Amino acid sequence: MSDEDHLLTREDKAWVEFRTPLGQAALLEFCQDVERLFRINPYLVFRRWETTSAGQYRLHAVNHSQTPAFEVDTGITVEPLQDGLEIHYSQGLKSSTRMTVRESSGSSSLMIEEKYEGVPESERLDRLDEVDRSLTKWAEEIQRYLLQWQRWAWFGPWRYYKKRIWQRMKPAARRITFLLLCISAVEIALIGLGLAIYLIEFRK
């Protein structure tokens, strides 16, 4: 992942680029599910996601990338591009998010660029507490998701879990579920070990 994640005072934008395990066409297809992209962000706690029309959505969430957290309630318009897509916001400090897919040595890379040009510069300086600081972590989580997707997408139950259950969970619920699964796996392993020891002793 690139370290080039800056909020530029002159251009008022932030960007990050990282490599992915998917091919260019597969990554382009993956990015078409805009709701999934937003829900992967671990700092967004969704209150409502609504599809209003083709390429038009309504997002109401709480962004925890700053302290205190701030509300996000905005219309979203998705503009398809040949090499990705651009997301425009009707409310809030951030004006757009552009996702660009590039071919990279047989795989692909994804660049996410966020712009803050919807309000005058003087107003932007007064609203720094509304700057979305989740970009780097969001990119890390998308990259992790894609690695899992490349490895497990062939397995139907896993796809169902990720899209129908995991995707609807709040970030805290995902962490708790992961811990519970790890604890359950350890318990099963210990039970298996105990059973193996018992069988070995029984056969003596």
List the topology elements.
Layout: E1 13-20, H1 24-31, H2 34-40, E2 44-53, E3 56-63, E4 70-81, E5 84-89, E6 96-104, E7 107-115, H3 121-126, H4 135-152, H5 156-165, H6 171-203
Antiparallel strand pairs: 1-7, 2-3, 3-4, 4-5, 5-6, 6-7
Please tag this protein with its features:
about 200 residues; alpha+beta; Alpha-D-Glucose-1,6-Bisphosphate, Chain A, domain 4; 6 helices; disordered N terminus
Structural commentary:
The structure is a single chain. The protein is an alpha+beta fold. It folds into 2 domains: 13-154, START domain (Alpha-D-Glucose-1,6-Bisphosphate, Chain A, domain 4, 2-Layer Sandwich); 169-204. The protein is 40% helix and 30% strand. It is built from 6 helices and 7 strands, in the order E-H-H-E-E-E-E-E-E-H-H-H-H. It has helices at residues 24-31, 34-40, 121-126, 135-152, 156-165, 171-203; strands at 13-20, 44-53, 56-63, 70-81, 84-89, 96-104, 107-115. A 7-stranded antiparallel beta sheet has the order 1-7-6-5-4-3-2, with helices on one face. A hairpin with a 6-residue loop joins strand 3 (56-63) and strand 4. The longest helix is centred in the C-terminal third of the chain and has 33 residues, at 171-203. The N and C termini lie far apart (56 Å). The model is unreliable at 1-10 (pLDDT under 50).
